[in-house]
Design brief:
Blueprint lengths: L10 E4 L5 E6 L1 E6 L16 E4 L9 E8 L2 E6 L4 E5 L1
Antiparallel strand pairs: 1-2, 2-3, 3-4, 5-6, 6-7
């Protein structure tokens, strides 16, 4: 399992070099595609994934995501705010 979303994810993309999977809806989960694979878990931190905009009570709804390059993702929030996240 590489993530879980309230109401299912709205978007899922894989980086051009196939090293990162990005999923979005209620926030964003970036899952690094590398061995050894660790299953994603709620309320856990791990170097296999990064979460953004998913903190309880501070959730950010995401309309779109795209990789600018293999180390940078652009997030478009429901409020049309563009966020650049370096990974």
């Amino acid at each position: 399992m590489i993530g879980d979303f309230y109401g299912d994810p709205d978007i899922g993309i894989i980086s051009e070099d196939e090293t990162v999977c990005a999923m979005a809806g209620c926030g964003v989960i970036l899952y690094f595609i590398k061995e050894p694979f660790t299953e994603w878990e709620y309320h856990k931190s791990n170097n296999q994934w990064i979460e953004w905009g998913r903190e309880i009570g501070k959730e950010i709804w995401v309309d779109n995501i795209r990789f600018i390059n293999t180390k940078t993702i652009e997030i478009l929030t429901e409020n049309k705010e563009k966020i650049i996240l370096n990974i």
